[in-house]
Amino acid sequence: MSAARQTPLNFGASTAALTAASGAGPAITPRLVDGEMGDAASKAALERLNQAVGELKARTVTPYLRRAIDFIGAEDPKAAAEAALKALAIDERSGLAWYVLAIAREKSGDFKTSIQCYESALALLPNHADIANDLGRLAFRLNLKPIAVQLFAHYHAAHPDCAQGANNLACALRDLHDYAGAIRVLQPAVEANPESSPLWNTLGTIVSEQGDLKSALTFFDEALRFDESFAKARYNRANTLLDLGEVETALAECELAMTTAEAPSDLAMMKLARSTMLFCLGRTGEGWDAYEARLDDGFVDAVHFMVDRPRWTPDADLEGVSLLVVGEQGLGDEVSFATVIPDVLEALGPNGHLHMALHARLLPLYERTFPGVTFGKHSTLSVDGHTVRGVPFVKDQSVIDLWAPLADLPRRFRRTLADYPVRDRYLIADEARVEHWLDVLAGLPGPKVGLLWKSLKLDGARKRHFSPFERWRPVLETPGVTFVNMQYGECDAELAQARDMLGLNIWTPPDIDLKMDLDDVGALSCALDLMIGPANATTNIAAACGGDVWLISTPSAWPRFGTDAYPWYSKVRVFTSEAVGAWDGVMAKLADALAERFPS
Fold it and tell me: How much is the pLDDT for 463?
């Protein structure tokens, strides 16, 4: 039996996207949640399906489809899939049978097969807009946003008066940063449905991503005015309050939202957000316990670790144990979380052994610093829409007694702020390369200050936490300083902007890949007089190697744990904006501090 291959809308790329392999595991971070996007297995949806089945002329498949729909309603997707397959065995060109099978596969977590089945159903029933909507919703969930826009637009064109259809299309447009397009879709929907809480909620997420937090708060309040139990709007309100610096109120709102959350993915996101709010209040022990939510199966992009050994718990005795620790999230996260390695080695004692899986680019730094540890790279794949991380360098996992995801370890070793050690460094840069960079930099005039201004990932709300390059002008005007480009990724536009705006040439170091050669980045960081930038992989490496680092932060940045410092690295100095997006004041303070540090 084979699925139908073509659809009039040509969404075959959706299946291909799911099979893309390799790459880093996603950094699971709290984000705003959308209004009700619909559910292919909702009571109303299943009633519509039953009605469509009743209109079928091919009566031989009807009993199996009825049974499959009943199994979906009973939350038994395996039995539903078996019944749908029996219907397809009778008539493999039954669009409704493919549709029911798609829903069953989605509910069982088999996203790749589900998308294939949705596409087959849509090929056979091209005018069945509900299929496009459900496929779009799954594509949206799997972060295939351009595909989701096409599918939602197809549904919206067929049902222009459906508030949910407008809401879904607006959410997908927002995530592609087409804010104007999203608002154009929402405006008539809100006018026609002024008491729709999901529409007000989505409007709030759009203006929030644009940085208008006060308007966002107003829209979330409006959503709650019409439905005070609407968990998504209350949670989004909590996140907005957090960004506005009202942490205690944000925590209370988040915990209230958790009591009425319906979707497992929403509850997982709320639990994770709660952990970061606890961090912001300095309640670090509680925060690390709650941070376990980052691995909740409710996240469609949660990492699944391919380790078949007992998982470590904070009360486990590590003396003499063979422990495997697997890195997680982004490069900067691995560097900061790994500050616990000396504590772990002490707990293991002389008869224990540490195996550690990290990004390959970090290995030279760690192998030099901790020669007694067995390091190797982890391998990350996308399998049927799920992120899977393995440790191929551990050929025989039976030598491992316990294993832990890296961010589990602070639950034991960083319960309080006093547990964060005062030390100049915990990683050792290559001394020969430090000397090399000192010689190179000696040919430049004045103090040498490394400069970063962004992260490679600047999607949606995350972008608000990084200052636009033009706001750096007061800093770049500091006389007598040579600024050194430490920004990895594409940055030619900003370098040209500095030349055009200020007549300033930001010096780019030769013969180094600032993204890939992180060992040399650590050495260069130690040779600089100072490095300035947001918290990202480079500033974490610089601080870990003992470089002099000034961090630019925002009020809701949880790694500060409610302090005005950066406890991970005792030498780091932090400059925090008064509010998210309020860059002028913090840049002025940074410029004054730089002029004081290096008087001309």
Answer: 57
